[in-house]
Structures are given as C-alpha cells and as structure tokens.
Design a protein that fits this description.
alpha/beta, D-Maltodextrin-Binding Protein, domain 2, 2 domains, two-stranded antiparallel ribbon, 17 helices, ABC transporter substrate-binding protein, maltose binding, SBP
C-alpha cells in the first residue's frame, strides 16, 4: 500500500499528464489509427494460476479472431502491480487497458488517469446485466470508469462431518453461529477460524448501523461499530471458540479449514479451487453469511477493466474492454469457476447461481458491500488492522483500540 505523500505526488503528476495530453486525446486520440489499419492494444494485469492464464489467453485469442485488425499485447505484472501501473501512468507509458481493483479505484479515478466510458457504451452492451454493487464501485460523479470483469463475495464454509458429528445445523443467524462455534470447539479444533482484519470484518463493523468511513475519514470509533465487532472478540476471548490462523500454525483461513483445525471459516470463491487441489478429501459445504438482526450482509472484492485516459487508441481499447466484459468474453474467462462472472446472465448460463458451492457466493452479490470506500482507505485499513488485532487477542479493550486507530488514521489523512 502506498503512503500518503507518494499518492499526493501521483495525483498531481497524473493530472498534469492528463492536461498535457488534452489536445491530442479529447477526441478519442489525435493519433487514433484509421479504419482498416492494424492496431496493437496493450493490456496489463496481474498474474494468476496456470488455468486462469490459459483462460485469459483463450479469451484474447477469440477476440483477435473476431477483430483481425487489433492485436493485443498482454503484459503480466507479477509484483507490486499498482505501484508499477501508477509509475507507468505518470511516465506516459501506461497500458491502454488494465485491471483495477475496486479498493484502488477511487484514488486513481481522482487523478484523471482513467477514461470515463459512458460515451462508448452501445445498447447491445447491456449495462443493466451487471450486478449493481459491483458496477457502482467504478462510478464517480455520475460517470462510469470501469466495467467489472469478475468478483468474489464471502460465504460460510463448514465441515460437513464435524457439524454432523456435533449435531449442529448450518447456522443462519449470528446467534446460531456463535452457539454452533462453541459446540464445535473440541480439543485442537476451533469452531470458527477468524480473519481479524478490516477487509473481512467490514460487514460486521457496519452491521449495527455504524460507519467505518465518513467523508473520506475514519469514523469507526463509535458505539455502533464497537457493538458490531465485539461479538467476534467475545468468541475468541470469552467463549474460546474462535482462533486466527497463526494461532494454529496456518497462514490463512483456507489452509486452517483444510487442515481441519477449524470447523467453519468465512472465505471467498478463491478457497474452492484451493481446497479441491490441496485438501481434496475434506467434505464441506457453503452457505450465505449468518444474518445480523435479520439482515443479510457480505463483502465483495471486485475487479474491473479500465481504459487509460491518455491512450491514443481508445476506439480499439474500447473494443477490447467491451469484449472482455461482454457476455461472450466473460463467459470464457469465468467458465472454470476460478472467478465469478459480474454479469447475472453469465452466472445463470454457467449455472453458478445453482452450483452447490458457489450459489451462496453468487446470491450475496446483490446485497454485498464492495471492499472500497474512498481514496484514503489504505491509511484507514493500516491503522485499523494494527489496533484491532491487539483487541482481538485480548490485549486491550476494543473501544480503546478503535479510538486510537481512528485518531491516528485521521491525523495521517489530514
């Protein structure tokens, strides 16, 4: 994550870059290739597993076959993806089209480095087909700056045998969940494997009406946020029914669950192929997250394709972007289930909305809170996580930890 000073410098540099290029790009690129000319469009993204890389290359090959005048140069950035992208954008060497995580979107959009896409959209693109929360994450001031390529929500993963042996039903409410966790905690097995970080507990923090962020500043030191989070701490410190991965020698929730050191975890779609490949003998199911006060909630981690505002090949870039986020391209890319399609029609066509393991994840897309809340989230997250972990481990009261974290975060923001 970037520091505040570096981000401020990026914003100024990127806006100056945009201003300098206004004359040649305001009409979709002064040097836009003429019809019939061969065009090379650069596409940048981070690396994935071999199956994902194969699917992306297959999707790009289909695109090039249908658009013989456009070649796609794929650039895979394996480390420090956003730092590399930002540096290249400042230097005027950014890719034409690139991945953008919803978490990073507000800050980058404010710099002017991302092209608004509304003027390119045609009726057959069917914008209404996207899950609304996923699409809204890339809107600013009424303009759309990206179209989602895929996402994951969070779901409850539970060990079928452990629940059966303990006579426990799959919990549907938070009260049922805490009771089940206590009953499932036996010996070296915890009822719940928790991930005590804001990216995973944001939905809980706001479950009692509090707000983690207000007007781009931290606002989580409230009684409402404390009330939303305290039950998780009570599971760890009072009931002794929850642990975090490091406490049982694991690196993350999926590993802890696969090793059967926790009967239940809250994870995303990424855990499904991981468990299949690494722990194929574990029998498990998934369910939507337990409701709090009768309300459904979950998180969504959302990635879009966006266009470089300084691109001189915007017409061709849109052809690529719209294919990748269109129904045909998205179907190919998400066909193996490594990523979930952001379009409702594609999820239905591939059967993910009825899939035994993925249906709860798909169901959550319509009501999910996207992991994103303004340009200052990196600062807010860092301060929250540092103090929240100490409270989760019982080293200090939650209210005190939240107040210290909020004060420090806003000091850095100001």
């Amino acid at each position: 994550m970037m520091n505040k000073k570096w981000f401020a410098g990026l914003g100024i540099s990127a806006m100056l870059l945009g201003s300098a290029l206004t004359g040649c790009s305001s009409d979709n690129g002064g040097s836009e290739p003429k019809d019939g000319e061969k065009v090379e469009v650069t596409l940048a993204g981070w690396g994935g597993n071999p199956t994902e890389e194969k699917l992306l290359k297959e999707t790009l090959a289909d695109f090039e076959q249908k658009h013989p005048n456009i070649d796609v140069k794929l650039e895979v950035i394996t480390e420090q993806y956003m730092d590399v992208i930002k540096t290249r954008l400042i230097g005027g060497e950014g890719p034409d089209v690139f991945y953008l995580d919803a978490f990073e979107a507000p800050g980058l959009i404010k710099t002017g480095a991302v092209e608004p896409l509304d003027e390119y959209v045609t009726k057959d693109f069917d914008v209404d087909d996207f899950e609304k929360p996923l699409l809204d994450a890339f809107k600013e001031d009424g303009k759309t700056y990206g179209f989602p390529k895929d996402y994951s929500t969070l779901a409850l993963f539970y060990n079928k045998k452990m629940l059966s042996d303990a006579g426990v039903e799959v919990p549907k409410t938070w009260e049922e969940f805490t009771a089940a966790s206590k009953k499932l905690t036996k010996g070296k097995v915890a009822g719940f494997g928790a991930a005590p970080e804001l990216a995973r507990v944001y939905w809980m923090a706001e479950s009692k009406g509090g707000k983690v962020v207000t007007d781009d500043k931290a606002s989580f030191a409230s009684k409402e946020v404390e009330a939303g989070l305290q039950p998780l701490l009570d599971m760890h410190n009072v009931d002794k029914s929850a642990v975090e991965p490091k406490e049982v020698g694991a690196s993350w929730g999926g590993e802890m669950f696969g090793q059967q050191k926790a009967a239940m975890v809250i994870e995303g779609n990424w855990a499904i192929p991981y468990l299949k490949d690494t722990f194929p003998d574990v029998e498990y199911g998934t369910a939507e997250l337990p409701t709090v006060d009768g309300k459904n909630s979950t998180m969504a981690y959302d990635v879009a394709y966006v266009m470089n505002a300084a691109s001189e090949k915007k017409k061709a870039s849109w052809e690529l972007l719209s294919y990748l986020t269109g129904k045909e391209g998205m179907k190919t890319w998400t066909s193996k289930g490594y990523a979930l399609p952001a379009r409702q029609s594609v999820a239905e066509e591939l059967g993910f909305d009825k899939d035994e393991l993925r249906a709860p994840l798909v169901a959550g897309a319509s009501y999910a809170t996207v992991w994103q809340k303004g340009p200052n989230m990196p600062i807010i997250v860092n301060n929250f996580n540092n103090q929240f972990m100490s409270a989760f481990l019982g080293k200090r009261p939650l209210g005190e930890a939240l107040k210290d974290a909020e004060k420090q975060a806003n000091k850095e923001i100001e």
